[in-house]
Specification:
Elements (H helix, E strand, L loop, with lengths): L1 E2 L9 E2 L2 E9 L2 E9 L6 E7 L2 E5 L4 H12 L7 E5 L5 H7 L6 E6 L2 H8 L6 H6 L3 E5 L2 H6 L12 E6 L19 H8 L2 E11 L5 H10 L1 E12 L4 E11 L3
Parallel strand pairs: 7-8, 7-10, 8-9, 10-11
Antiparallel strand pairs: 1-2, 3-4, 4-5, 5-6, 11-13, 12-13
């Protein structure tokens, strides 16, 4: 049997694999795919930007740890959190699992990604859109960091935590416009959106970068790079991501 998903202009595909959506975006063509994992019998959701795999529901350990580690180092208030990059929603979901969080603003550049969540096309979408604390904002996180901040309804708003999972790594970006974010001036501007004692956390697909740690240390304190390991059954070995954590002095 072949499957043609709603709103897809692409050709029919096997029931074991379906391209759920395809859309042009300012930084390339993005697609949402679902495939059946023959080993587990579980549906796997994958996102591609052009020929690059951006994310998979098969590998969510580091995305979840990104939120957990960021919130764990917060003392006191964790009521207002901003996440840069919605993706499949696992980081946002973990943020909302913390009862201290009263409001979560998730900034996503790619409109189709927000649409997938609102239409329930990805597993976490219904939970995120039903939680009154969670607001999905269409915007460029990096441009917003250089400007009035991450809440269009409240310019200049200060957050308890800023959690980012967008680029592959500080030196491996999806689009040239984000490069300045990782510089000392960009890092200083980012810190301006945090309260004293607030936490910045960044996911990276690459090993810890000593140069980026030095940049962070110019602005923040308690700067560390945590390596998160998880099994990769596709390669038959463990994989590793890096999570940078830093606290604003105060």
């Amino acid at each position: 049997m072949s499957v043609v998903e709603p709103n897809s202009s692409r050709k029919p595909v096997s029931a074991r694999f379906a391209e759920l959506d395809w859309s042009p975006t300012p930084i390339g063509e993005i697609s949402l795919r679902r495939r059946l994992d023959p080993a587990s019998g579980v549906d796997i959701f994958e996102v591609k930007l052009g020929d690059d795999f951006l994310m998979s529901s098969q590998f969510t350990v580091a995305e979840i740890e990104l939120a957990r580690l960021a919130l764990a180092r917060l003392s006191g208030s964790a009521s207002a959190v901003a996440v840069g990059g919605l993706g499949l929603g696992y980081t946002a979901q973990r943020v909302l699992a913390d009862d201290r969080v009263q409001e979560l603003v998730v900034v996503e550049l790619l409109e189709p990604v927000i649409r997938w969540h609102r239409q329930g096309r990805v597993p976490v979408g219904p939970m995120l859109t039903a939680d009154h604390r969670c607001r999905l904002v269409s915007g460029d996180f990096f441009a917003m960091s250089a400007g009035p901040g991450f809440d269009p309804d409240s310019p200049g708003r200060i957050f308890d935590a800023l959690i980012v999972d967008i680029d592959h790594a500080p030196d491996h970006v999806l689009a040239a416009g984000s490069t300045g974010f990782y510089s000392p001036p960009g890092t200083q501007r980012l810190a301006g959106h945090l309260r004293p004692g607030g936490v910045y956390a960044l996911w990276s697909n690459d090993p810890p970068d000593a140069e980026y740690l030095d940049v962070l240390s110019e602005v923040f304190v308690d700067v560390v790079a945590e390596v998160v390991r998880f099994p990769n059954p596709l390669q038959g070995r463990d994989a590793a991501n890096t999570i940078y954590l830093a606290t604003k002095p105060g």
